[in-house]
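sorry for the late reply, my laptop died twice this morning and i had to redo everyting from scratch. anyway the thing you sent over, i finally got around to it. pasting the sequence first so we're on the same page, its 495 residues, then the predicted structure underneath. double check i copied it right bc i was rushing
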Amino acid sequence: MAELLRISAKDNVAVALSAIGKGAAVEVDGIALSALDDIPAGHKIALSDIPAGEKVIKYGFPIGYAKEDVKQGQHIHVHNLHTCLSGELEYTWNPVAPQLPAKEDEVSFMGYPRKNGKAGVRNELWILPTVGCVNDIARALEKEGQKLLGGGVETVYAFPHPYGCSQMGDDQDNTRQILANLATHPNVGGVLVLGLGCENSGVAIIEEHMGDYDKDRVRFLICQQVEDEFEEAMKLLTELADNMREEKRVPCPASKLVIGLKCGGSDGFSGITANPVIGGFSDLLVAQGGTTILTEVPEMFGAETILMDRCETEEMFNKTVKLINDFKRYFEEHHQTIYENPSPGNKAGGISTLEDKALGCTQKSGFAPVKDVLAYGEKVKIAGLNLLSAPGNDLVAATALAASGAQIVLFSTGRGTPFACPVPTVKISTNTTLATRKHGWIDFNAGQLLTHGKTLPELSQMLMDYVLSVANGEKVCSERNGFHDLAIFKTGVTL
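ok and here's the structure:
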């Protein structure tokens, strides 16, 4: 395996594919140099002298500027690199032609068709508290509900959360819409909406936000209105389970799939292996008429023009500009800098600035045109690549993807994480070491691109095949571990 990778011919840095010791002689693209520092795997080395104030180029784009004179062979990281990012910007639309692969034979999966035309990849029984006050009841019902498993009832899950009351404005609306969207999610064969009775976002309000829903699949209970809420809830769960019992999987076209795209615990290989592999998968699914959703808006900062230029219409370009600038304004209104995003783990893995992370992050979107831009809590309406407004926080962003209609979330990581959102959460490692060491967390190893001689198209097709197997019912690691989380975006005051 080569020691260095120069991602673009325009780059004045290369990425160390393995640790390089100080004084080592290395070469990439005909450039011979001696390492002036120890360069950890995934970190950057200067390919030429870079004067202070000059831009540092990676992926063919600036990832910041040199804070001091940098010599060829030096380690480039947070100590000598500074972001170029600033506040809201004006943008110009420079449309580019989409580059989708040719559609081959139509592919399908074995799923659960729903009355509204959507399809689930799971047939689960969910307990959704409207307010944190009934979380413990929901947990107890989940435990007791395991006796209802069997036949078409694949899983019984409760989704505790701390919200539903003492909220104002957007926070209250967000809680209501996320819960309503999850109550009508295609992976749900039955759902019990469990309320207390005195909360702001009560059962009746959640039902209003659900719109036209399948009444055979939803039941409601207000705990304060019954003598024994546990007994009454189990009656309703049993009724829902009986309705689901005989349901079976049937062939569904891949065009019914909606897949969320997310990354977290990234490293210097994220933009080289896992995220491009996910991007290749996204293009394959879009070519089949399916849908992918890219989110974590702060991790688009610095790479947003790449997405803007792929907008199909000028109207969509304007919506993307608003998506970016509105999120920058959100940071500024809370007196926070817009560029302080890479976590300590990201930095340890070799990511130095937000631009560095964003240029890797956006590769998960492949090369398809941007078809729509969704507000937080908005459901997908148009097939193809969608952009969704949500923060970078792993649990919040992954929950937002599920609430917008994703039946599966693909989550790339260079450092590993065990969490899961309300839908199957596929962990894709950026490096083989992580996949080997954390085999109880990782479902797919994109590090094979560097260690096993696989090509990007081969791995993207392998990921497509794996996603179809998950859609068919194969459990991912987090499902086998029994992990499932719900996190709702909070932006304002708690009463």
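The first strand starts at residue 4 and ends at 5.
thats about all i looked at so far, will dig more tmrw
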